[in-house]
Every structure is written in structure tokens, then in C-alpha cells.
Amino acid sequence: MHKAFKIFSSMKSEHFIHPSACVDDGAQIGADTKIWHFCHLMGGARVGNNCILGQNVFVGGEAQIGNGVKIQNNVSIYDSVVLEDDVFCGPGCVFTNVKNPRAFIERKSEFSTTTVRRGATIGANATIVCGLTIGAYALIGAGAVVTKNVKAHALMTGNPATQTGWVSRAGLRLNKSLCCPETGEQYQLVNGELVLKA
């Protein structure tokens, strides 16, 4: 069991674990991370520094969560899900890890890896089918059902999700000029991929 504050970091930085959370032996939690009400981290789970796990978040023993990740309430990060740094998971979003589950057939050996690249956002109640890669800084709209790989900076909406635009690193939709209205960063399309202009 754990105390409300537990030290895992070699630098002796504290992080917060709410007393109602369950953190199994062997889970790794980085400095300054906050684990809130009724979360459950399985042994072997890896959570980076400066993360926030909202109420009722589950993290599987083979899941990997980078630094600066924010996971809102009621999200399960199952085995074979990888969230890189600065990913945002909206409330109730869903990851899967088997494409054809059956209650009466054991398919743990068939888990498919899902990778969410740096800075991407998964909107509330979106569903990510397993075995996909969500590109860096992509934005998955609320309620979208993603069934294919997603390009970096792509805005994906609908069911099944289709690309309906591009977004900047700040998460704002880009117009035809491909200039972020908030930061002024200028982007360009290179072979169908959006990249930051040098």
C-alpha cells in the first residue's frame, strides 16, 4: 500500500497519490505527478514526470506514459498503449488492445500496440481502435472513432474518423495560409505531411 505522498524518484521529489488510489507494487511514477481519486496503476506501469491522472483512471502493467501527460476522468490505458510526452486524453476516451475480443477466448498474446505521439490530443469520448499510431500534435475530435493511422497535426472528426483539417502545435485549426493564429508559427505541406517551416 501507499501513503498519500510517496517518494519514487531518485531525486527525492514528491508526487501526490490520493489515498483512495491503488498503486500496485512495481508501478513507476515520476516526480511531481498527481494520481487522483480511485485510480488503479498495475505493477509494471510506467508514468513519467509532471503527469495528471484524473479520477478513476486505470493504467495497465505494460502501459507506458511519458512526461507531462494529462489523462482526464474515466480513461483506461491498457497494456500495449504508449502515450508519449505531453499527450492529452479527454474524459471517457477509449483505447482498445484486441481487434476481435471474445469473453470466452483468451487473446492476451494478440494485443496490438497503440502509440500516441508527442503533444497529440484525444477528445472526450473518442475511441481509438488498437494497433494504430496517432501522429504528433494531432487532434482527435470529441466522439470520433479512429480506425486508421493519423498523420501529425491532423484534425480528425466523425465516425469513422476522417481528416477535416490541420492543427498547429497550439491545437488551433489552420486556415489556407497554414499559419497558427495564436503563435504565428508557419507550417507547410511536404509530400502530404504538415511540417513547421524553418
Automatic annotation (TrEMBL):
<keyword id="KW-0012">Acyltransferase</keyword>
<keyword id="KW-0808">Transferase</keyword>
<dbReference type="GO" id="GO:0016746">
    <property type="term" value="F:acyltransferase activity"/>
</dbReference>
<keyword id="KW-0677">Repeat</keyword>
<dbReference type="InterPro" id="IPR050179">
    <property type="entry name" value="Trans_hexapeptide_repeat"/>
</dbReference>
<protein>
    <submittedName>
        <fullName>UDP-2-acetamido-3-amino-2,3-dideoxy-glucuronate N-acetyltransferase</fullName>
    </submittedName>
</protein>
<dbReference type="InterPro" id="IPR011004">
    <property type="entry name" value="Trimer_LpxA-like_sf"/>
</dbReference>
<dbReference type="Pfam" id="PF00132">
    <property type="entry name" value="Hexapep"/>
</dbReference>
<dbReference type="InterPro" id="IPR001451">
    <property type="entry name" value="Hexapep"/>
</dbReference>
<comment type="similarity">
    <text>Belongs to the transferase hexapeptide repeat family.</text>
</comment>
<dbReference type="InterPro" id="IPR018357">
    <property type="entry name" value="Hexapep_transf_CS"/>
</dbReference>
